[in-house]
Write a structure and sequence with these properties.
The chain is built from eight helices and nine strands. By secondary structure, it is an alpha/beta fold. The strands form two sheets. Strands 1-2-3-4-5-6-7 form a seven-stranded parallel β-sheet. A two-stranded antiparallel sheet has the order 8-9. Helix 1 runs parallel beside helix 2. It binds zinc ion (2 copies).
Length: about 270
Amino acid sequence: MLCDYHIHSVYSDDAENTMAEMALAAAEAGLSEICFTDHVDLDDIDGNPNPNAWRREEYLAMYRSALEKAGDRIKIKLGAELGEANHFPDEAKAIAAEVPDFIIGSTHNLKNTPDFYLGAHGTALYTSKEACAALLDRYADELIETARLGAFDVIGHIGYPLRYIRVCGYPELDLRPWEARLRELFTILRDTGRGVEINTSGLRGTLGETMPAAWLVRLWHDCGGEVITIGSDAHRVGDAGAGLAEGQRLARDSGFEYFCTFSEHKPTFIKL
Ligand SMILES: [Zn+2]
Ligand SMILES: [Zn+2]
């Protein structure tokens, strides 16, 4: 059973297709269920506050239209990818209460810092190995801060900065030096009943691995983690459902017996 729990539509600035188009493509690809997780980034790409991130009525209208056009072909849930929740804790909690089914808590940029993506697209972020390590240090701190805040169901794409740092001259960098901090993160997630997503978008690009990487999926299991979702992070129809089978295999190989879908922020455990 294939369920894509990270999928974007034109509600997100960087996506190309409507929810209905994405849902029909997912049905065509043989998926049973998808959950839309459009960007609700509380900072914009430059790291400035983004007060227009949550447009509830617009989002719900898109969802209703998708249900009408594709709801008989595939099960469709409505979630959000809530970015930088820890930068605006009160706002994040208020938005989280309005998202029907599921929230991915993501960190695309650090406080008062541009999106990690921009560091590989013209902005001077990855100026030295020491500078990269300092960013990853702050990244680990902000993941933990996000986990403590709790306005999410799973933590999104752990390792996102590496996708950009590695192509900027530091292919050898990874998160291993922060293993103790990541254990701390996983302990908080486990103790609060929250989870980790396996984001398969890295398999399609230069990163060549999932986010988090295989050793971290294993670490999540070894820390007593139970909740995992698997998502393609598709931004266009051609990517709907991409890598889900590989994500499931990785979960199984890491010791998990179940992956999760969500309804009203409650997990359903599905045998792998
Ligand atoms: Zn993201
Ligand atoms: Zn995403």
